[in-house]
Specification:
Helices cover 11% and strands 30% of the residues. It is mostly beta strands.
Length: 92
């Protein structure tokens, strides 16, 4: 379910649509870049999204972030020239 459209996340450029739900009975919170807000490069601290989710009252049980993902969801086609050239997570 879409909970929030066009949300700002402190410390992260752009606008974000927030989708929430469950996967295998566990909560999931997805921040999806608003349509039309494409960027050629994005660097961010994943904790900014985590802190935003907590501030919005989303339930995030546990003590670990299990995954971080970047990708594309194609709703209409044909589409060309999509690529993720470099993706990494640096844990400090």
């Amino acid at each position: 379910a879409v909970d929030t459209l066009s949300a700002d996340v402190a410390g992260v450029p752009g606008k974000w649509n927030i989708w929430t739900g469950q996967v295998f009975g566990r909560p999931i919170v997805n921040y999806v870049a608003k349509e039309g807000s494409d960027v050629s490069e994005l660097e961010f601290d994943v904790m900014n999204f985590y802190d935003d989710a907590l501030a919005r009252g989303y339930s995030l049980p546990g003590t670990h972030i299990n995954s971080v993902a970047v990708g594309f969801e194609i709703w209409n086609g044909p589409v060309s020239n999509l690529q993720s050239v470099d993706f990494y997570v640096d844990v400090n």
